Amino acid sequence: MRSYNLPLVSVIIPCFNGEEYICDSVDSVLGQSYDNIEIIVVDDGSTDRTIELIKEKYHALDGFRLVQLASNCGAAVARNKGVSEARGEYVCFLDADDLAVRHRIECQLKKLLDTESNICVSPLKNFGLSKNHVNWISLNQEGLKKISLLKCPFPQPSVFGERWVFQSNPYLAGCYAEDYELWSRLLFKYKFCVVDEPLILGRNHSGSASRSHKEKIESQTHEIRVSSIKNYGLRLSNSELEVLRSCYTNKFVSHDRLVSFSHLLSFLLSEGYSDKFISNQYNDQFYWVLRQQCNYDIFGVYRRLRFSKGFRWFGLGKEVKLLLNCIVNFFLR
């Protein structure tokens, strides 16, 4: 595993009850084209056979360490513990149910060094549950900043960076959107670069997305959006912030408020850097909000001219889905 003429990279894998997939994730790291790595699995209080399986398969492996937390503390604490245990000059992260493509570490380290950046990220390709699409991301830091005004701008498992950055800026414990919270800060403090190919395979499965703590997640995510907007140098009124909050969290928003939301997105889009990819991302966010609206009926389709110009059409496939939603809502009223 070791080649000492290359910088050591620490791969941190937080894990909670990951018996089904953890060995696949570790094996994807062991198969990397880059040699000088250490693997740190941080078990976050698993109650299944995760620890037993890891010890059985990797206990004698050079450069592998299992760190056990006494109780379930959450992903933020587990990642922070991994960083504190890391010996590498660089660290990267991987979720316990995801896979790293073979050249992931080699590719990101080269990009980081070539661009003299602090952190490198990449798109993620989904697989499982009949899903096989790529979550593309912006190709430059200004684009990542712009997308962070609304959502997490890149997938957490794709993160690769200098260890000292994460030592100085830990994940926020107790936050359910700890990745988004961290990037909303670090994007405005350090230099980021992007590898324009999916270096992570993100597994979709029935247990991969937690639906618990929904209200806390929505509340924290709203606060992160507000913080990111401020970091971008923009100031919104209290009424505009309420439009932003309600449209993302309320499934019964008035058409007038949706109109206001479209114009708010248009304003955010017009400030600073923008390109076609970012415009499409903002359009997708507005479409997602419309899909959540239980009272957006078929007549709403014909009132769409009041929406800001860039938010009146979503492409044929999405329009069909939206129309079906509207028809269902109409007959359920």
Automatic annotation (TrEMBL):
Gene3D superfamilies from the UniProt entry: Spore Coat Polysaccharide Biosynthesis Protein SpsA, Chain A (3.90.550.10)
Alphabetized CDD domains for the sequence: Glyco_tranf_GTA_type
UniProt domain Glycosyltransferase 2-like: residue ranges: 10-137
InterPro entries for this protein: Glyco_trans_2-like (IPR001173), Nucleotide-diphossugar_trans (IPR029044)
One function term, GO molecular function aspect: hexosyltransferase activity
PANTHER family: GLYCOSYLTRANSFERASE, UDP-GLCNAC:BETAGAL BETA-1,3-N-ACETYLGLUCOSAMINYLTRANSFERASE-LIKE PROTEIN 1
Protein name (database record): Glycosyltransferase 2-like domain-containing protein
